[in-house]
Amino acid sequence: MGVNVALIGCGNVGQGFLSLVLEKRKELEAQGLKINVVAVCDKLRGSAYDPDGLNISKILELASKSEISSYPGGLTGLDPISTITKTNANVVLEATWTDLKTGEPAYTHIKEALSAKRHVITTNKGPVLLYLKELQRLAETNGVEFRFEGVVLSGTPVFNLVRECLPGSEIVSFRGILNGTTNYILTKMEEGLSFEEALKEAQRLGYAEADPTMDIEGLDAGAKALILANVIMGASLGFNDMECKGITGLKVEDLRAALSNGKRYKLIATGYKENGVVKVRVAPEEVPLSDPLANILGTLNAITFSTDTIGDVTIVGRGAGGREAGYALFSDLISLSRKITSM
Ligand code: HSE
After folding, report:
1. Rg of the chain in Å (alpha carbons)
2. What's the domain count of the chain?
3. Strand partners, 313
4. What percentage of the chain carries pLDDT values higher than 90?
5. Is 179's C-beta closer than 6 angstroms to any atom of ligand 1?
6. 120 in the same domain as 61
7. CATH code at 76?
8. How close is the Cα of 220 to the center of ligand 1, in Å?
């Protein structure tokens, strides 16, 4: 069995995905799955299309020089919409930049792809936060799948974990550390770095958003918590429906005082029910060191799900990075391929 893939956005995440396909291709083919990347389109790096499949090593080499459009053979110079609708791809991976206010350009790309009966996998929080129900309906109407494992905790499983491993359980509430940048800053401040030094380091590591205000004011964690509440707790919440406070008010002395009381400051995102209504809150909290979330350090993320069946389940893992988010696309693609080829 095989799938033809078009990749829209070939930055760190897209390149992380392509590297994984290269690395794992033989293994997957031995299991009977052939991933054919037929088209790549990136606003800054160029585009290339070959209906028989692109040479991935060549694309990676050209992407690093922003010269994908000089790909030898095949067709170059396609725009994103033509790449989605006019190629022989049956799966579109959307990995362009995130805009939490408009969801664009990913929202348009995803709508075009679903309307053209392409399955869609994305790591982009914007459209999932703003247009989840509409996009799910569009996918259903067109008989295709819409997957987005990577929008929360990147490649560390969250939605697939709940769907595949906790079937029949109700997620009563969740608490998590959903933003790597702020967790890194808090960890480094405990070690003696200033807020500004720690933020600069998180930016150098490539964790912070293009506008780091989204991280430090809690909005990135908030967007992820809202998506979790909407997907796994059946809510329909937007930015205006949550309480949100970031970490900018915290000082090194606050962190040290908490530690001397056996606690650690963490930016905690919570989804819970109050009188049957789902609520979301993001705020710095003093977490006792006996709580698993207190020991999540650096850029790691974690979520504790409270279930009505087996109590608390905690998952810990990396929540950002090109390879990690690329793996989210890759893992969604493998499970999607298994599903569509068994139908
Ligand atoms: N800026 C985000 C973080 C990236 O620090 O967690 C992953 O969504």
Report:
1. 20
2. 2
3. 305
4. 92
5. yes
6. yes
7. 3.40.50.720
8. 7
Atom of ligand 1 nearest to the CA of 209: 1
How crowded is the C-beta side of 146, counted as CA atoms within 13 Å? 27
Tens of pLDDT, residues 130-157 = 999 999 999 999 999 999 999 999 999 9
Ligand 1, residue 208: give the atom nearest the CA: 1
Active site (annotated) includes residue 224: yes
Same domain as 192, residue 63: no
* 83-113 per-position pLDDT tens digit: 999 999 999 999 999 899 999 999 999 999 9
Q: For residues 273 and 148, state if they share a domain.
A: no
Domain that residue 211 falls in: 166-317
**Looking at the domain assignment, is residue 161 inside a domain?**
no
Model confidence at 333, pLDDT cuts 50, 70, 90, reads very high
Identity of the amino acid at 58: K
pTM of the model: 0.95
160 domain residue, yes or no? no
Contacts of the segment 320-324: beta carbons below 8 A, 24+ positions apart: 320/154, 320/180, 320/181, 320/206, 320/207, 321/12, 321/16, 321/154, 321/206, 321/207, 322/11, 322/12, 322/13, 322/15, 322/16, 322/206, 323/16, 323/19, 323/20, 323/155, 324/16, 324/154, 324/155, 324/156
Confidence bin at 205 (pLDDT 50/70/90): confident
Q: Of 213, 183, 218, nearest to 198 (Cα)?
A: 183
* Domain match, 26 and 147 both: yes
Instruction: Give the residue, out of 99, 220, 329, with the most ligand 1 atoms within 8 A of its beta carbon, to mutate for a pocket test.
Output: 220
